[in-house]
Amino acid sequence: LETAVMLLLEAGVLATQAAVVQQ
């Protein structure tokens, strides 16, 4: 569960960064 949560958080961060770059 911990690994899944970490991957989910990391994916969220990457998605946020991508959204900021696209703006």
From TrEMBL:
Q: Which UniProt keywords apply?
A: Receptor
So which domain of life are we looking at? Eukaryota
Name it.
Answer: Melanocortin 1 receptor
Q: Which organism is it from?
A: Bos taurus
Please state the gene responsible for encoding this protein: MC1R
